[in-house]
Prior knowledge:
Layout: H1 3-26, H2 29-45, H3 53-77, H4 79-84, H5 92-95, H6 102-122, H7 125-146, H8 153-157, H9 159-172, H10 178-201, H11 203-208, H12 214-217, H13 220-237, H14 248-270, H15 274-301
Helix pairs in contact: 2-3, 2-9, 2-10, 2-15, 3-6, 3-7, 6-7, 7-9, 9-10, 10-13, 10-15, 13-14, 14-15
Amino acid sequence: xxxxxxxxxxxxxxxxxxxxxxxxxxxxxxxxxxxxxxxxxxxxxxxxxxxxxxxxxxxxxxxxxxxxxxxxxxxxxxxxxxxxxxxxxxxxxxxxxxxxxxxxxxxxxxxxxxxxxxxxxxxxxxxxxxxxxxxxxxxxxxxxxxxxxxxxxxxxxxxxxxxxxxxxxxxxxxxxxxxxxxxxxxxxxxxxxxxxxxxxxxxxxxxxxxxxxxxxxxxxxxxxxxxxxxxxxxxxxxxxxxxxxxxxxxxxxxxxxxxxxxxxxxxxxxxxxxxxxxxxxxxxxxxxxxxxxxxxxxxxxxx
Length: 303
């Protein structure tokens, strides 16, 4: 291959990589995957026979589409704020690499309608409503109404993940049973300390732009204690599904994840700085991953 051809191939590959990176960023696909896992966790803890493989694939895709629509809405709406923050200024809309416009808003609406419509067509209206409410909570309630106005922003915004759990459970049984409800509350309580750990690392960024995150409103030490209290509550609450049908695999995963998060939260209270906050942030992700994977393995292997 000639040098010119190699250069052309390299440029094409670089352009494709950039587009892929931008798509992952704008639609917040990493978060969408976590939300999809939360829905599958709801399936795992629900009472009743689990959907088949193809139905689970449809549910996963529907959740990812709904979450992706909310993520894109968030980045389009907040593009001016993102441009002023060090952590987010390289996002495509914030940097100006991509331009927001009517077609983007139409695309977001279409993706959301597609995800919600798939859930309604393949499962039931309850599943579809939960998916819509999750996207609406993150996109409108959190992003538009709360984020730049109140310290309660991420607390109420935590409902977005809870709706994913309820959507997954409703795909099995539209009626609300105890274990999925407990897991939904776990997701609700998990989101604030997870995000507060991130806010501790980016507090100067939030301060410079007037975003009322907890470390700015109440201080670093108060935030560290709030995270610890949430972590303890989560560790206890996450064990309750064991008494409502979940088996030993889930129990071990919940115990390990809860212990890990509590341990790093204690370290954060003792040394409330950036390294401890980052360790706590990773532990929160680890706890949720163990909880959801444990629930799915428990349902698959023990039933």
